[in-house]
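Researcher: Let's do a round of design. I'm pasting the structure tokens now; please hold your answer until I've finished.
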């Protein structure tokens, strides 16, 4: 029992820091740790991770919103597209054989960390006020559809895909990109967690409660730091955290 609690605390804190700092989905950290170190069934581990994501993402989004680093309007449009095309991606995945894409989100975490270290996002490439309403809506729908389809097809990578698209395609500066990403993730995680519980029942109560509380604590600390940090410092810390998490998950996935 003690080992289980310790692993859940470490997994939750790591996932929370990733969520609050960089919009990383808790599933990318909690799931592999519960599966590798505690022998949890994959489906149950993902359900616990998604449930941990809900409060952590919502609390982080609230913190970013208070600091005016959250684009709610475009976030809601993108959310609808993400949810709709996640279903489409899941259906498409069921029609093809399993491909060697299981490590997609793991490698994306590492690569995105390197990107923020070498090519920091210090300002918005094109302020939202300079874009027409129609252009912002169309971009949000198209980007949300792409993220949703990929997430549904490979079953992972939502937080990283959102952060990559918000900064690289839509031109958001890093704080607003993370704030909008965790806002969207709060809804997608709730949908995913509810589906897992409805299909598989309630997961291990100790692991569930400890992971939720640890993830929430880590996310709150990271979100507060992120909103107070300078853009340059935030890029360096975010890049370092993502790179370390990516390397750790590669080791867990392929070497253990």
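Researcher: That's everything. Go ahead.
Model: Designed sequence:
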């Amino acid at each position: 029992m003690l080992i289980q609690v310790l692993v859940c605390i470490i997994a939750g804190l790591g996932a929370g820091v990733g969520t609050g700092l960089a919009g990383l989905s808790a599933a990318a950290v909690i799931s592999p740790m519960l599966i590798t170190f505690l022998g949890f069934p994959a489906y149950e581990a993902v359900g616990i991770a998604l449930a941990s994501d809900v409060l952590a993402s919502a609390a982080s989004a609230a913190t970013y919103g208070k600091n005016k680093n959250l684009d709610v309007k475009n976030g809601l449009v993108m959310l609808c597209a993400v949810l709709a095309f996640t279903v489409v991606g899941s259906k498409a995945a069921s029609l093809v054989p399993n491909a060697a894409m299981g490590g997609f989100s793991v490698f994306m975490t590492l690569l995105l960390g390197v990107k923020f270290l070498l090519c920091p996002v210090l300002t918005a490439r094109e302020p939202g006020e300079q874009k027409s309403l129609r252009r912002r809506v169309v971009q949000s729908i198209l980007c949300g559809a792409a993220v949703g389809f990929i997430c549904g097809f490979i079953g992972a990578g939502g937080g990283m895909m959102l952060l990559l698209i918000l900064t690289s395609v839509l031109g958001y500066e890093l704080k607003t990109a993370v704030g909008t990403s965790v806002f969207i993730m709060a809804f997608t995680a709730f949908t995913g967690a509810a589906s897992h519980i409805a299909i598989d029942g309630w997961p291990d109560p100790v692991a569930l409660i400890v992971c939720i509380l640890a993830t929430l604590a880590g996310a709150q600390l990271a979100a507060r730091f992120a909103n107070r940090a300078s853009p340059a410092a935030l890029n360096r810390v975010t890049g370092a955290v993502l790179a370390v998490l990516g390397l750790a998950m590669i080791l867990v996935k392929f070497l253990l």
